[in-house]
Records
---
Amino acid sequence: MGPRAFGSANGMSGSLCQTQSKAMSSRIAGFCCVRCGANYPTDIEIDSKGCPSCQLSAPANLQPVYKQSRSSGQPQRHDPQGSLWRHASSLPCTFEDAVSLGEGDTPLLQAPTIGQALGVPNLFIKDEGRNPTWSHKDRFSTVAVSVARNQGARVIATASSGNAGASLAAYAARAGLECIVATFAGTAGPMLSQIRKYGAVVLPLVNKMDRWALLAEAASRLGWFVTSPCHSPVVGSHPIGIEGYKTMAYEIVEQSNGEVPDWCVMPVCYGDALSGLWLGFKELFALGHIDRLPKLVAAEVHGSLSDALARGVDRLDEQEMLFETLAVSIGTPRSTYQALKALRESSGRAVPVNNDSLLDLQKQLARSEGIFAELASVTPFAAIHELRKQEVISANDRVVAVVTASGLKDLDRSPDASETHQTFQTIEDAWQSLSSRQNMLG
Ligand SMILES: [Zn+2]
């Protein structure tokens, strides 16, 4: 396939594609900066650089502004398939135009055993591993791909070779669109296989940063709809997709019979989901559906949010990466202003999490609650443990931990060393192997 085949519909250029977006995104009145509040028209180029005014001082993402006040958070329409599109009236796209695989509506499970162990018996787990591609990224992809298709884009692209790439590839396949996943040489593992299975074109580049340059050029020259960051410093992913994460807040409140958790804790990389979660809670609050807001906690790896919170600044510094994290999905040296804002506004916290406890927590969660989570997805439990120890989180607090992805996603990083793979020659040998497990033989 040549460049033409990867252009937008009818070979439209990027600017034509944007012009069309004006008509298509009828719900969106424009965009505004999450930091300075500056307003921009609907046809502003979403080029991953964020707000033009803030770019030099403290780069910040944009967010869509809707045309009229909507009754956010309350399901408007019965979706017979069951999906987050029950909340279509709060999203940038209609139910009828949605590209859906039945995402969202994941369970909020009480987790008393691990909760007790962490000193927070009122612990609940929002299990996002139940989404169609086994991660929370489906909330982003369903909205981004729906809008992209409506705008006439023919090619969707991302620089993620992890959960976001796998999710985007699936939704592009569902929508009948081409998907390009720019990755870097040496990327391996189950997620890359997953991306390929959905039929996405994988472009491995030796230099990690070249991925962004390639996507930025393709967006401006060929009209590719790029959902991931493709500019440094990162401000976050495409603002349209981030809207999908608001539905996590709607569901948490709905599943708690209107009760608001004291704390919501989640793994944070660029903070798209944290930012969307916060937007969702704020919408519910503004509309009077809830009477208070939760405090948010970012479980991070290299500490850029903790550092910016401590220093009271808006511009996040790139942190030195002192170790190779097992939580690869969130291993960025620098998060974003949108995440910082959500933490500040909610009087929340950021907790750096190292590798020490991750494998144990993964095992503990699986064995005590029956939930097998990706290694990045168990970082919230390490953060809860730390904040409980510091008595920031109280024993009686209601805490929601967002488990963002399934443990099958990074199985190559968490082999079970205790497994012997022994095969027994006789039934007697098998009985013999159970002799130490008296609780099974009584
Ligand atoms: Zn700004």
---
Amino acid sequence: MHTDLPVLSASVGEGPVTIVLHAHIDVVPGRPEQFSPWQEGGFLWGRGAYDMKGATAAMLAVMSDLQELGSRLPVKVRLLVVPDEEADDDRDEWGTERLVERGHLGDFVICGEPTDMYVGVQAKGVLDLRVDVAGRSAHSATPWLGTNAILRAIDVYEELLRLPFVGESSEFYERASVSLSRIAAGDRLNKVPDHCTMDIDIRHLPEQDIERIRTEIATVRGCSIREIARRPPIQVPTDNPYVELLLGAIDSASGRPVECVGRDGTNDGFHFIERGIPSVEFGPVGSGHHGPEEKVEIESLRRYRAALRQFIAEVCVRRDDLTGVTRIHGLDRHRDHDATTGVATLRER
Ligand SMILES: [Zn+2]
């Protein structure tokens, strides 16, 4: 079945610098009661409240605030809203990828992912593997006559866990990670399985060279390994001028110093990073995203909106210094001006 999903791009203002506010409106599955939100204890509870409809609502409010300035806003602020950030299928076309390819770009991107008002300047890279392990079948009443592929696969997994890159740390991270996420093996209870397939989700540090990781993985024997997906890491220097302005704006909106952090999960910002555009995660306070008790602190949404507005005000003041700081590559810059505001649709299988 195909359904059409909306992808939205809207902008306000005009000037030498463009700030992108990036939001996704899809959510992961939840319990039925999570789809009727309620307020309690200063929080809005419900699926997506924290990841990331709270931030999306605040971004819409910021766009509305800026709309009043209209053509007097001396920078461009572009809101991008996609419907498929949480999807995990093998789709041909991703919302953010499509927007980037069509020139909906900017000089700095803020993804409103949940960060408790911290600024996520790094995200780990993703390397997903399919590992096939062979065994030899036998009657399960005499398992000593066969070779159990599941047990061999577990040995392979444990060997992967011991590879040198897994234990390394960096300024923002204590470790890389290797997760055994899916396993398929065995067709009869009374038979020793002769084949096992594992899907392994590796999250590596931004500083780790992917080819070196692949070389280490290639040393693991007794299996065949192939790559099924890869996403590059995100790394934005903490002294990037936009990051510094954002930190200052959050400080003044929330009344306390805020830090840069590294995020274990990835986000859609990598599509912009691939074009040379710095992209960070910055979102409101809450907890329980992807879990059964998701909630966002309502007061933090006000601070979040104020911080975004303050940041854009600072960018307006500093626009001459910021012009040309970001160098977009892999795309013809003038396509930026062709990018039309509006709603398009993605085909979803
Ligand atoms: Zn999210």
---
Amino acid sequence: MRPRSSPARAERRRRGDHSPCTREIVLASLGIRRELPTNVPAVIDLPALSPGEIEFKCGMNMLRGVIVVEPRT
Ligand SMILES: [Cu+2]
């Protein structure tokens, strides 16, 4: 199936928190694991994605959330 969206970028900023849980972000389904600097925006380039949800987790598989990919209107 061909992705319908365009490549995108996600920006994450880790704010003054030195917990190891916020040190890394992992988007396993995209094969992305990125270390996040403190108080500096980190830009993560994403490939073209199909509408749906992309799960992200911390590097230790504890914290999690989703990036929602919405269809183009
Ligand atoms: Cu963690």
---
Amino acid sequence: MKSINQCILALSMGVSAIAQNMTYGAENFYRSNNVTVQPISFPTQYRTTVAGNLFYLKDQSNGAAPAVVVGHPMGAVKEQSANLYATRLAEQGFITVSIDLPFWGASMGEPRNVVLPDLYAEAFSAAVDYLGIQNITSVDRERIGGLGICGSGSFVISAAKLDSRIKAIATASMYDMGTLARQGLQNSQSVDQLKETIDEASQQRWTESDGGETQYTSANATAVEREFYDYYRTKRGEFVPVGSTLDLTTHPTLSTFTKFINFYPFNGIETISPRPMLFIAGDQAHSREFSQDAYSRAAEPKELLWVPGAGHVDLYDRTRLIPFQQLTEFFQTNLA
Ligand SMILES: *[C@@H]1O[C@H](CO)[C@@H](O)[C@H](O)[C@H]1NC(C)=O
Ligand SMILES: *[C@@H]1O[C@H](CO)[C@@H](O)[C@H](O)[C@H]1NC(C)=O
Ligand SMILES: *[C@@H]1O[C@H](CO)[C@@H](O)[C@H](O)[C@H]1NC(C)=O
Ligand SMILES: *[C@@H]1O[C@H](CO)[C@@H](O)[C@H](O)[C@H]1NC(C)=O
């Protein structure tokens, strides 16, 4: 277990000054008086069910509107960060859907908290299906975009490679979960450590096939881990879905985390072109290498937007830092 934890969040790195001020502009649970929120669920191509929220302006005009699907950070649920982004975009006239990734939150899937990147990506396409066929508000099928925060940044890219109905793609504080699992942050994990991690997960799989207890990944030691802790384990961003417990939230199972080792979201990223991509990250973020890498491998049109002074988790909920204006303009321009 120890080496997986080291693999997930290996480095003790500097965390931005803002990140250390927990209260600075943190509005994870922001609600808008102008926006209607409605719980929804819809099927995937594999007949599993994804749970989400639908957001639209209370006075949404009847004309066809552009839409955006929003995915939450890895280990989170839609109530964490995704609802906030979906609400703020809905205020600007987009019809938005925040989703719970399969096996997380209110979405279907047993056991809970397992890792299956293909199904995570599929959830974005399933949300596009939903938006394109439902009649509550009129969505223009040709004007649907995707937005992924943290791990969902890599899942929405993975989805967009296979689904040309996703017409514009934005990420915030993106984590490439594949590179993270293989190499750690900033290439901090050696091949020997990777093999050790694989051995641990494999042995844990024996334990589980023998009927033993599921183990979960966990970490709380480094500066990076504390940055996550300040969000997920304080009233700033803590959320426990129905049927779960606080201890269970945020932790993928140990024996499935290794599925990310086969996940290469940026391979073929250039085939998304000419659909536009926008990568947003804090210039102090411990995860900045992932946005940088995706940006350099993507083809035009593409944009890399550094938020001065912001760390990784800052862009989950600090509304004074999240560049909603540029995000809105990106989708307005590219879903016009
Ligand atoms: C933290 O941010 C709040 C605003 O949200 C501000 O009032 C306070 O002065 C900041 N504290 C520090 C130590 O910077
Ligand atoms: C809510 O709607 C009112 C009336 O259209 C508008 O003046 C206000 O700016 C909107 N607020 C937000 C946060 O979008
Ligand atoms: C939406 O409306 C169309 C045309 O009226 C209808 O065929 C379709 O079944 C409706 N879809 C849903 C999900 O209600
Ligand atoms: C994790 O770290 C925080 C401080 O950053 C501490 O308050 C908390 O008790 C720790 N939790 C565990 C489970 O070690």
